[in-house]
Amino acid sequence: MFWSRIFSFLAVVWFLIFAELANYYPAFLLVFGLMAWILPTVVLAFWLYRVKQQKLPMHYLGLSFIFFAVGLSFFLPLVDRPSMRQALIIFSGFLLYFDLSSLPLFVKHHKNYAVGSLEQINLAMLSWSIFLFSSFFFGWATFLAKVFWPILIAVAGFFFLAFWEMFFLRKIDWKKSYQHSLILSILAVEFFWSVAIWPVGFVTKGLVFSLIVLYLAYLGQAWILGTYNRQRFVSWSIVTGILIIIVLGIARWI
């Protein structure tokens, strides 16, 4: 177990070193960015193999890591302040360490492993990935896009997979969730279109939109599981609304 944690720690250190090199040497962003993910991917692949070998539950280990890696790689080049890029890298490194260090415990001590811990870590990574992708899509619309419809297609495709993965992590069968994921992804496109015209920065738009997406996801989950009720709907709506107001209140308006 000691060596397993050491390898997980070294994988995160590897990631942080090359991510920082990519931050300080933008000309080599692609090279250092790809290098940063090599060792974490190898460590993750090894533990996924062990999970499959021991026939342990796989619903904890879905697309979250891929979304996390791709979302961070897409979003970072759009951030123009090195200090903000560094903060994003450090926070992402913490999440990555929690994920990689939990896998050995899950594999070697599955019977004593805290129920739902790895699931919660993957949900946290997925939520962070939703913010990264949301900000990237708004950055794409702001800086890179000459036409808008390819972005809407990308938004619909990603959030369909994100909703499906979130339901999957909650042990909801994909046959029950794919229709709800499709409906929620269409709603996400509508909200994306609305938020895109707000006079705030693309990171603020991404944060607000990710709050809306998580709100939709938890409502969809409650609906599928039959735990939806008016009180829960009102409380979640109020909390989400307050968070959005706070974000917009401290944001820089254009």
Description of the structure:
- Keywords: Membrane, Transmembrane, Transmembrane helix.
- This protein is mostly helical and 254 residues long.
- It has two domains: 113 residues, no CATH class; 124 residues, no CATH class.
- The chain has ten helices and no strands.
- 33% of the residues are buried.
- The model has no long low-confidence stretch (mean pLDDT 85).
Write a concise synopsis of the structure shown:
The chain is mainly alpha-helical and 254 residues long. Helix content is 80%, strand content 0%.
Task: Note the topology.
Elements: H1 2-24, H2 29-36, H3 38-53, H4 64-75, H5 82-108, H6 117-144, H7 149-169, H8 174-195, H9 202-225, H10 230-250
Helix pairs in contact: 1-2, 1-3, 1-5, 3-5, 4-6, 5-6, 6-7, 6-9, 7-8, 8-9, 9-10
Transmembrane segments: 29-48, 60-78, 84-100, 121-141, 147-169, 181-201, 207-226, 233-253
Keywords: Membrane, Transmembrane, Transmembrane helix
